[in-house]
């Protein structure tokens, strides 16, 4: 194996470690930074994100700024917006050289996610069209939030442990942020007449997360893509 490839892999491991450690303290910006760069298009956003992730020590606040600064333009993202009549879809826009994933999620009328975590990664969610509603929950059995309640074996939790801690509407160009230290969440399109579209950034990227089902059992769910770069994926390529 070439030394340059080994060095690259070491750098990526270091960056992942740094980003995961940052979830322990990062809370999110409410508005763009005064000194941050302008983002005038979706392609500007992608290029700026690639520049930020060139460093092992990613400025997560600047990543937040970039997501806040982009203003939704349907002409730019429409080709990635693929809907399914039965469920919301996850559509890959940019794979971030393995350092982040930028996705467009499409939500039909009334569609919603399960309660889930983010595998110790950062999740930024920006509204592009319509509205979404986020319900947030305490993360059960997590040491930072462990308040002495008993835990059920086999990954099951009782209803006293899945505690809702907030509900927030997300409107066009708003950005929501979550990581596992802030809790779990469920996202849904509250409208039964209009669709919604959102732009999500995950860093580091992950291929599985924990889902807390209605029967309160914690399971592992594989993360898949309905489309990649505007093209429908085959089942074995998801």
Automatic annotation (TrEMBL):
The keyword Metal-binding applies. It catalyses: L-cysteine + O2 = 3-sulfino-L-alanine + H(+). GO terms for molecular function: cysteine dioxygenase activity; ferrous iron binding. Pathway: Organosulfur biosynthesis; taurine biosynthesis; hypotaurine from L-cysteine: step 1/2. Keywords: Dioxygenase, Iron, Metal-binding, Oxidoreductase, Thioether bond. There is a cross-link at residues 123-202 (3'-(S-cysteinyl)-tyrosine (Cys-Tyr)). Pfam families: CDO_I. Binds 1 Fe cation per subunit. Its EC number is 1.13.11.20. One of its GO terms (biological process) is L-cysteine catabolic process. Its cofactor is Fe cation. Fe cation binds at residues 116, 118, 185. It is an enzyme of class 1 (oxidoreductase). Belongs to the cysteine dioxygenase family. This is Cysteine dioxygenase. It comes from Drosophila mauritiana (Fruit fly).
